[in-house]
Prior knowledge:
The chain has helices spanning 2-34, 38-61, 67-90, 96-115, 124-140, 147-172. The protein is an all-alpha fold. It has one domain (2-172): Four Helix Bundle (Hemerythrin (Met), subunit A). It is globular. The N and C termini lie far apart (46 Å).
Amino acid sequence: MKIKTLKIIRKKNIPNAITFIRIILIFPIITLLELNLQNHVYFLIILGGISDFADGFIAKRYKLKSNFGTIIDPLADKIFVLILFTWLSINQIIPYWSFSIILIREFFITSFRNSKKEGMPAINIAKYKSFFQFLALILLFYPSKNTLIFDTGLISYWISFALCIYSSIIYLRPK
Length: 175
């Protein structure tokens, strides 16, 4: 009985462990950005995106969802993305005003969703927003200096920005 319980506990922790990988990746990302090694950040962004997909896929596929995971996964996503958007804003790649709106939205909507008694799942528009945010980061940090890739990254950023505003309206509209 004890061994079976331990196996279940370990399995339930797999998606959370993958989420923690994304959180841990933030430290080398910050270090590489401080050392002006943006080309190396690209690979960590790819790894972060894969970990985001993997933890959600495993949790859903094997019914390993946990209350802790529903809190830590979106938090990890936000920290991961906002650290990189901060750097892009400081380096005047994305406008500070748009980054500020995204930052305020992320804190406000996350607080709003967590204030609900039973939580509030992410809506599809917010999932598309997250996809375009990761896509923007992948393209804006692409190691090769290719104008088409960079411009596509900016377009992805602005799509994510529009979805950020739209999803906020959806979350906050009276039901």
